[in-house]
Specification:
Keywords: Signal. This is DUF4374 domain-containing protein. The protein is mostly beta strands. The protein has a single domain (about 45-444), classed as 7 Propeller (Methylamine Dehydrogenase, Chain H), CATH 2.130.10.10. The chain has helices spanning about 70-75, 80-85, 140-145, 210, 330-335; strands spanning about 45-50, 65-70, 80, 85-90, 95-100, 105-110, 120-125, 130, 135-140, 150, 160-165, 170, 175-180, 185-190, 195-205, 215-225, 230-240, 260-265, 270-275, 290, 300, 310-315, 325-330, 340-345, 350-355, 365-370, 375-380, 395-400, 400-405, 415-420, 425-430, 440-444. The strands form eight sheets. Strands 3-31-30-29-28 form a five-stranded mixed beta sheet, with no helix packed on it. Strands 5, 6, 7, 8 and 9 form a five-stranded antiparallel beta sheet that branches. Strands 4-2-1-32 form a four-stranded antiparallel beta sheet.
């Protein structure tokens, strides 16, 4: 299961918000909100569907995409069937997709298989017409065949891929346990020229005390560019080796949440920062996990903390955790064991998250989050279902004040929903036609 410490982790997104030209309260619906991202008048909305491989909802049978106009995406009388009418994108398993801000281009790095690590782009032409770029670049020699990667919102110029090789146990001369480490890669891609801009590899040690107990970084994901544009903050997924048995421990006393910071664009000077507020991982799973908000600070979600649920952490503009900021999603929603599968910042301290919790038996929900007030509320007006699972969810679209999200239970039809960032009003959009075992994993 993805919420186990042994599940493979994938995808995230780097996101730097555009500056607001006015300041207004996120709690005052009468005040206008300048859009977080510009509105594209004739934007394509691309939906992505993951195919079942062996078990319903595993999403490992490949990915298909289909695009419609914004008008059709908002129209509940329109039906979209990506599985019958869509086109596949290159990926042995679930594709790790990103889109340009205006929706005209899809970016993809093939995940696993013979072509694992190949980066290519697709021009979005409407319907199932996607034109693949004539050139590709293979980053597998640096980041492996299953890299985690995200796109910087820097005018669609740069993507960042990260990877950690399988951690290896190192012993002392007397054969006693010393530490467990893998070799990390951080790589930047020129999305326009389709080439590698820079790549750095290094080991990332924890403190000697932490390493002696077996703690180590298992995965990296969800890099985010800070407001100053000179640092990348990269999320971590932690594991622990039992020093006596050399086996991975399924459950363990977790360290404070950690992130890796490197200089940008050089990708040098790796440094670990640690939160004393959160104790979950900061890597996300297959989608965005941290964002630069309008106040210039980074807000980051946590996962896999079975004791405390998900937190939203704050990283200040000095690139350190602000441990005075305490935001427990459990507390905000009045639930236990919250788990943020994916989330998206939309502006003025407001974000939306797809999540589950202990009592939900993995059923997914959508929450509106106010980062300034540290409050959250389940979004009503969405057709929730016991088979709704956002565990592999990847893509939201923010276009002006509209947030687009795909909501489909596994094997059942669903819809695109459009949420107004100012009022929180939910509008049911186009029908998403499903097939047994499949589910839609995002809009781009």
């Amino acid at each position: 299961m993805k919420k186990s410490t042994f599940k493979l982790m994938a995808f995230g997104l780097v996101f730097t918000t555009f500056a607001l030209t006015t300041s207004c309260s996120s709690n005052d619906n009468e005040d206008p909100i300048t859009p977080t991202l510009p509105e594209t008048q004739s934007r394509w909305i691309t939906v992505a569907g993951a195919l079942m491989q062996t078990a319903p909802g595993d999403g490992n049978g490949g990915t298909k995409v289909f695009s419609v106009s914004k008008e059709d995406a908002k129209n509940p009388n329109i039906s979209i069937n990506v599985y019958d009418n869509g086109t596949p994108v290159q990926s042995t398993r679930t594709a790790r997709l990103q889109s340009s801000v205006d929706g005209s281009t899809l970016f993809n790095i093939t995940y696993t298989g013979a072509n694992g690590g190949e980066f290519m782009t697709y021009k979005v032409n409407g319907g199932n017409n996607f034109t693949q770029s004539g050139s590709t670049v293979n980053i597998s020699q640096y980041a492996g065949t299953s890299p985690r990667w995200t796109k910087l919102f820097d005018g669609d110029k740069t993507g960042v891929a990260v990877n950690v090789t399988a951690p290896v146990i190192v012993t002392n001369p007397d054969k006693t346990y010393k530490h467990t480490r893998g070799s990390a890669t951080v790589l930047s891609l020129d999305l326009q020229k389709i080439l590698i801009s820079a790549a750095k590899q290094y080991e990332i040690p924890l403190t000697p005390e932490e390493e002696a107990k077996g703690h180590h970084i298992f995965r990296l994901d969800a890099p985010t560019l800070n407001k100053a544009g000179d640092k990348l903050i990269i999320g971590t997924w932690m594991r622990k080796t039992n020093p006596l048995t050399a086996e991975n421990e399924a459950t363990f006393e977790r360290l404070g949440s950690k992130s890796l910071i490197v200089d940008y664009p050089s990708l040098t000077n790796p440094k670990i920062i640690t939160s004393t507020v959160g104790f979950g991982d900061t890597s996300g799973y297959r989608s965005f996990n941290s964002f630069v908000a309008n106040d210039g600070n980074i807000y980051q979600a946590t996962q896999r903390d079975t004791k405390n649920g998900s937190y939203i952490l704050k990283i200040n503009q000095s690139n350190e955790y602000d441990n005075s900021y305490v935001f427990s999603l459990d507390t905000a929603l009045g639930i236990k064991g919250s788990y943020i599968d994916a989330w998206r910042y939309v502006g003025n301290g407001i974000a939306y998250a797809v999540y589950t919790h202990d009592a939900a038996n993995n059923q997914g929900f959508v929450a509106r989050i106010d980062l300034n007030a540290k409050t959250a509320k389940k979004v009503e007006g969405i057709a929730y279902d016991t088979d709704l699972d956002f565990g592999q969810y990847q893509g939201f679209v923010v276009d002006g004040n509209d947030l687009y999200i795909a909501v489909t239970p596994v094997g059942k039809d669903g819809n695109i929903y459009v949420i107004d960032a100012v009022t929180g009003t939910v509008t049911k959009g186009a029908k998403l036609v499903n097939k047994a075992g499949n589910h839609y994993i995002g809009v781009f």
